[in-house]
Amino acid sequence: QVQLVESGGGLVQPGGSLRLSCAASKTIVNFRIMGWYRQPPGKQRDLVAEMNRDGRTNYVDSVKGRFTISRDTAKNTLYLEMNNLKPEDTAIYYCYIRSALFADFWGQGTQVTVSS
After folding, report:
1. Mean pLDDT of 11-19
2. How far is CA 23 from CA 4, 7, 42, 70, 92, in A?
3. How many other C-beta atoms lie within 10 A of the C-beta of residue 94?
4. What would the pLDDT profile of 26-45 be if each residue is shown by its tens digit?
5. Are strands 10-12 and 110-114 parallel, antiparallel or unpaired?
6. Mean pLDDT of all residues in 57-69
7. 109 neighbors 92 (Cβ within 8 angstroms)
8. For residues 76 and 23, is the Cβ–Cβ distance under 8 A?
9. What's the confidence (pLDDT) of residue 29?
C-alpha cells in the first residue's frame, strides 16, 4: 500500500504560477509511472502529465510548454510546476502512481482555481 499526499493547490490569477507536490509514503525509485491527473467541475478525470521510471515524460497538449513534471527521489516526492495558468486549468488535481507490481494508487486531490 502506498499513501500519496498532495499539496500546493490554491487560488491564483490568470497568468500566475503554482507548484503542486505529491509526497509518497514509500520510495518512488521503482514506481513504473508517476503522474498528475485533473478533474474540472462536472467533467471526467484526465491525464495532465506523467513520468516513467526512466524519467521519460508525457504531457497533454493543452499544458505543453506551461507545466513541468519532476521528481525528487531523495524526498519521495513528485512535483508539477504550473506556469501561465489559465481559467480552464481550474480543477481538482490528483497524484497517481503505478507501482512495480502494477498496482494503482491515487492521492486525495488538491484544488486549483484560476480566477481573477
Report:
1. 98
2. 6, 8, 27, 12, 17
3. 21
4. 988 889 999 999 999 999 99
5. parallel
6. 98
7. yes
8. yes
9. 85
State the Cα angle at 79 between 96 and 49, rounded to 5°. 55
All cell numbers assigned to 33: 509511472
Backbone angles phi and psi of 26, in degrees to 5: -135, 165
- How does pLDDT run across 71-97, given as a tens digit for each residue? 999 999 999 999 999 999 999 999 999
d(CA 39, CA 70) in angstroms, rounded, equals: 21
Give the separation between CA 101 and CA 113, rounded to whole angstroms: 35
- Of 49, 78, 79, whose CA–CA distance to 63 is shortest? 49
CA end-to-end span of the chain: 40
Residues whose CB falls within 8 Å of the CB of residue 47, separated by 6 or more in sequence, listed in order: 35, 36, 37, 58, 60
pLDDT tens, residue by residue, 94-108? 999 999 889 999 999
